[in-house]
Structure formats: C-alpha cells, structure tokens
Amino acid sequence: MPYGFYGVAQFGTTALTNSVPLLHVKVGCQSVPPIWLGDNSSVMKKVVERLYACSSILNSEGQYAYYGRVGGCLITGNEDGAKHCAMNVLYSLQHLGYTIPPQADAGWVGEAGPGPSYLDEGSGGPENDFTNRNTTFMTWNQLHLARMLKDAGGIPAHGNQRSEWDAGCRFDFENPEHR
Question: Is residue 173 one of the residues assigned to a domain?
C-alpha cells in the first residue's frame, strides 16, 4: 500500500470520501510520511488535504466523522526533521477530530544524506532498538486509546455537534436575549 495510509493516498478525494467508513478501525489513521527537505513530503501534505476535504462529513451523533478515531505517525527518511514532521502530522490529525494518545509518533531517519531506506539491506533500520521501542509504545498506546474510546462509546456528543450548532444550539452558553 503506497505511503502506508491504507492505500488511499494514491487516489483522489472521491476515493477517500468513499473510504471514510473503512477508516473506522481500531486505529483510524497511522500515516508514514517521508521527510523531504526537512519537512513532510508533498504526498503527506496531499493525504492531510484529502482528509480535510472530508472533514465536513458528520458521524451518526452529529460530530465530525473523525471523532472517536485514534491517530499517530511513523516518520521515515534519511534526513533530519522527524520531530518537526510528526508535530505537523499530529496537529493536523487532532484538528480534524482524531484523538492522539501519548507518544503517538516514532521515526527512523538513518544516516543524514543519501543512503539506504529502512528496509534496505545494511540500513540497520529493522534492528534499531530506539525505533523498535518507540514504534511498539506508539502502537500499543494507539490500541489502548482506541479500546478506551470504543468501550466509552466514543467522544461524548454534548457540546461538539456541528449539526446542533448549525440548528442554533449553543451548549450551555448563557443566552443574552433571556436576561
């Protein structure tokens, strides 16, 4: 699956829109953006744009569709910038409604400059204890949070339903018209 995003990064907005129900898995989004010139690649930026294009879709509770889903990212590449890239991806995911657990990112960047990728022979990627530990912690934290959200029935809907806001509900705001 290209780019590690359940194969949808290769398609346009329509395919992603049609895939939104399929993304309602235990871990809703775990992206694997490569680093390009110290920042997320254009491919990763396109994935975020496609997700954002679907952000007006509401779930059955009237919340944004990504509510109750868990996100994280695994950064790859062979140049510096993994933490910067993770910061950007995780902020984007939470802005869309994903819930982000602690330690929701991991990365492997190899040696700076041109060189082997993670799975290339001699890269040291699969044997890297730092990456293996952080990827393991990230994955378990995502699974634990996803289980907690599922057991709780998702994020409570009171106070965050766009459909109710659009209908005039202001969720416990004092109404200045009725003083």
Answer: no
